[in-house]
Amino acid sequence: MIRWLLWLLAGALLGGIVHLVAVLILPRTATQDAYSRLSPIAPINTVAALPQPIPQSEVMPFMDPAFASAVCRYDLDSGPIKLTVPISPAYTSVSFYTRRGVAYYAINDRSAGRRQIELQLMTAAQHADLPEEEDVTAADRLIVESPSGTGLIVMRALAPEPGLMPVAQAALSRATCKPEPSTAER
After folding, report:
1. pLDDT, tens digit (0-9, with 9 covering 90-100), for 89-142
2. Which of 32, 100, 109, 185 could form a disulfide with 87 if both were Cys (CB 3.0 to 4.6 A apart)?
């Protein structure tokens, strides 16, 4: 009897280990992650509007039809990028994800406190290379450090009523995500 209980315990333990390994490895081997799905419609370091979700044909799963969405696939190998997102009348949010889909920063219009969300995105090494300017404070410049060289920036604007969707889409159409000129070019 005890021998059977030990075999059952060993089997359950082995099954748990196999399950845990599979759960941890599967996201790294997936070929249809968000970054890959968005590559045909979103060029690197450019804001691209996402089409409104239609049942059975969403670009990304679980998209909310009350939000206009845009995305920027970024690559920081050529240097930092500057992101500017105008605020829509209802609500605007910006979320940052690594290439593997790990969320590492988010900001909304309430936190920005301005008429647009402006920030610089760079790696920790690029941030360390920035010259220190005595007259520029942290309140004047928002810098977000990316843990990876590539990733996604997802921008969303709320349309509280279906008739206000063009207003939300117009706000996101004015968003920019472009490489910053180096200090030598300024």
Report:
1. 899 999 999 988 889 999 998 887 778 899 999 998 988 888 776 545 455 578
2. 109
Beta-strand runs (E) in 23-166:
47-49, 67-75, 81-86, 92-98, 103-108, 116-123, 143-146, 150-158
Two structure tokens written together for 63:
């998209």
User: Phi then psi for 162, rounded to 5 degrees?
Assistant: -55, -30
Q: How many C-beta atoms lie closer than 10 Å to residue 89's C-beta?
A: 14
User: How many H-runs (helices) and E-runs (strands) does the chain carry?
Assistant: 5, 9
The whole-model pTM stands at: 0.80
Count CB atoms within 10 A of the CB of residue 155.
26
Find out whether 143 and 119 touch, Cβ atoms under 8 Å.
Answer: yes
By the 8 A CB rule, do 73 and 39 touch?
A: yes
**DSSP label at residue 44:** B
Domain 34-131+138-179 has CATH 3.40.50.720: no
Quick check: 71 and 47 in contact, CB under 8 A? yes
Tokens representing 80 are: 């930092």
